[in-house]
Amino acid sequence: MKKHWYNYLWIWSAFYLLMGFVNILFAWVGLLCFFIPLFIASVWGSKSYCRQYCGRGQLFYLLGKQLGFSRNRIMPAWLHSRWFRYSFLTFFMFMFLNMLHVTYLVFAGARDLQQVVTLLWSLHLPWEWAYTIPVSDWAAQFAFGFYSVMLTSTLVGLIVMLLYRPRSWCAFCPMGTMTQTICQLKAKARAAA
Questions:
Q1: Which residues form the domain of 134?
Q2: 137 Ramachandran zone, left/alpha/beta (phi>0; psi -120 to 50)
């Protein structure tokens, strides 16, 4: 099978996670993982990002399938059910909005910069060594919060990859759920037109 450039985007995902340990401001680059899938779904009504370009999904496939870390079992039906996917999306959106709120509080001067990464929404990991380039406190706060979301979602994805099939995370990934919803709405709009 011929390899394409996008077959190596798993390197980008691994690099992104590693760079967050070195310099937390690198977390800002992760916004591409939010905007590109939404753009593709909005403009073309396609989930091609999820199928071809998602470096995280590729990383899970590499670790789980090719390196054999996955138990390769079918995940329980509730994990990919509609109610769970939308509940998980709602939860992640709440966490994302909370992160934006804390960033705003730092921007407004009502709260001090927290040099901490929150893993699994509750474990606070001091991360001050990764904040070596001085920028506005609000920009650093956003980076700490965004990296927390990305690291936590990667950890959840790794856990389900180990327990079930390699790309099990993709079944309830919040970005996948959002792009699927956008694609469905576009398809309905086209059918109605």
A1: 5-192
A2: alpha
